[in-house]
Amino acid sequence: MQQVTLLGSTGSIGISTLDVLERHPDKYRVYALAANTSVETLFEQCRQFQPEVAVMLCSDSAETLQRKLQAAGLNTTVKSGDKALQEIASTSQVDIVVAAIVGAAGLLPTLAAAKAGKRILLANKEALVMSGALLMRAVEEHGAVLLPVDSEHNAIWQCMPINSKQQYRFDNAGIRRIILTASGGPFRDWDVAALESVTPEQAIAHPNWSMGQKISVDSATMMNKGLEVIEAHWLFGLDSSKIEVILHRQSIIHSMVDYADGSVLAQMGNPDMRTPIANTLAWPQRIGSGVEPLDLVKVGQLDFATADVERFPCLALAYQALDAGGTSTTILNAANEIAVEAFLGRKIKFTDIARVIAETLQHVVLTEAESLEQILSADRLAREVAQQQVQILCNP
Ligand code: NAD
Ligand code: MG
Fold first, then answer.
1. What angle do CA 381, 387, 392 make, to 5 degrees?
2. DSSP-assigned states of every residue in 20-50
3. What's the pLDDT at 373?
4. Which atom, in ligand 1's list, is nearest to the CA of 13?
5. pLDDT band for position 206 (50/70/90)?
6. Domain range list for the chain
7. Pocket of ligand 1 (CB under 6 A)
8. Ligand 1 mutation target, pool 46, 211, 219, most atoms within 8 A of CB
9. Ligand nearest to the CA of 206
10. CA 125 and chain centroid, separation
11. Which ligand has its closest atom nearest to the C-alpha of 151?
């Protein structure tokens, strides 16, 4: 029986993960669940999965959860705060850690899981974008197994030649390039001029995938694909010239690997995150995920187009940051989180998101990204500068 810690259990990935786990009670047991503030959802999840531990980031939410669990006669231990997140990610009682917290908050528990040599199912792409070198080093040094849940990276992982346990470098595998597919989000067919007036409701209505708010906005700006280019760089050890993005509106091909002999391997499936979750849970075996079989006749046609950088300036910013190196991608990620929050709070326009990020990248001096201190300090500074940029845009 594999013991699982699920970080971010009340979110979109968290809920899909529980759906897969529920199908295999003979293989997996939930050891710990963790969330930010959603007491009601976490309570219902505790009632159903009866974990040993439940963690809420905020102590008030944790107290409310504790009272509710006691009243219901459940003996899950409730904890709160950052340290508790790291504890449930690294305890010897756990085999698998699902990293599904959104944003920079996921970094420290994911690092803790890596240092404890866990099998990590990584959805939290921001952790790699912020501190790819550090996280990959921790994985290698401590014998952790890092498996990508992000559908594109999971597709590439499945198309790679040697899926051996600790093989993250594919330099000599005859790979010409990898091709990340992107749906293009809700605005792929809009006039570029009309993007100025996009509302948060329009931005979070993704045509193919059902996801949390932040990643939905990232998909609409295509920063999500930018973050994924950086994620692919760290996961597969390829430089940016070997990572291409193309639009594929049906989201059936989740990504491809192009080999020197002209073979292109693609992984296909319905757009449902339970597939990569089940794949990484059971790898190298295969288990059921509840996902409908793919009906290619019904899909009918698969379209491809180039990604237009005028429409999606965030994608270009991500490539620039990756090429600049050091803490540049940490700065990019922090500025994006601040800008997306400001857009969702109706403080800035949709098109201001790229402006805030570009300005922040210009104003914050990049440093080496060798230590956690350097990463966290770049993250803090970039957030301050991005907030100033938001203020400037609010009060021109
Ligand atoms: P979401 O907003 O639906 O859920 C986020 C989860 O994280 C919630 O459970 C929330 O309570 C928890 N959380 C947020 N801040 C926290 C904090 N400070 N401490 C503890 N818990 C905290 O997000 P999501 O769509 O599930 O995405 C999660 C991650 O997976 C993101 O990094 C996203 O980029 C990545 N991802 C998501 C999808 C998808 O289909 N949703 C696909 C690929 C990758
Ligand atoms: Mg993805």
1. 130
2. HHHT-TTTEEEEEEEESS-HHHHHHHHHHH-
3. 96
4. 26
5. confident
6. 2-149, 325-396
7. 8-14, 34-36, 38, 57, 100-102, 105, 123-126, 150, 209, 211-215, 273
8. 211
9. 1
10. 3
11. 2
The CATH number corresponding to 2-149 among 3.40.50.720, 3.40.1190.20, 3.40.190.170, 3.30.565.10 equals 3.40.50.720
- The fold of 325-396 is Rna Polymerase Sigma Factor; Chain: A (1.10.1740)
Q: Ligand 1, residues 83, 102, 270: which to mutate, most atoms within 8 A of Cβ?
A: 102
Residue 166 has pLDDT above 70, yes or no: no
Average pLDDT over every residue of 203-222: 89
pLDDT of 308 strictly over 90: no
Percent of the chain with pLDDT over 90: 89
Whether residue 39 contacts residue 65, with contact meaning beta carbons closer than 8 Å, is answered with: yes
CA dihedral 231, 235, 236, 239 (to 10 degrees): 40
- Reported confidence tier of residue 263, pLDDT bands at 50, 70, 90: very high
Q: Whose CA is nearest to atom 15 of ligand 1?
A: 36
Structure tokens at 289: 């995920």
For 331-367, what is each residue's pLDDT tens digit?
A: 999 999 999 999 999 999 999 999 999 999 999 999 9
Q: Whose CA is nearest to atom 42 of ligand 1?
A: 150
- pTM recorded for the entire structure: 0.96
3-state SS, residue 349: coil
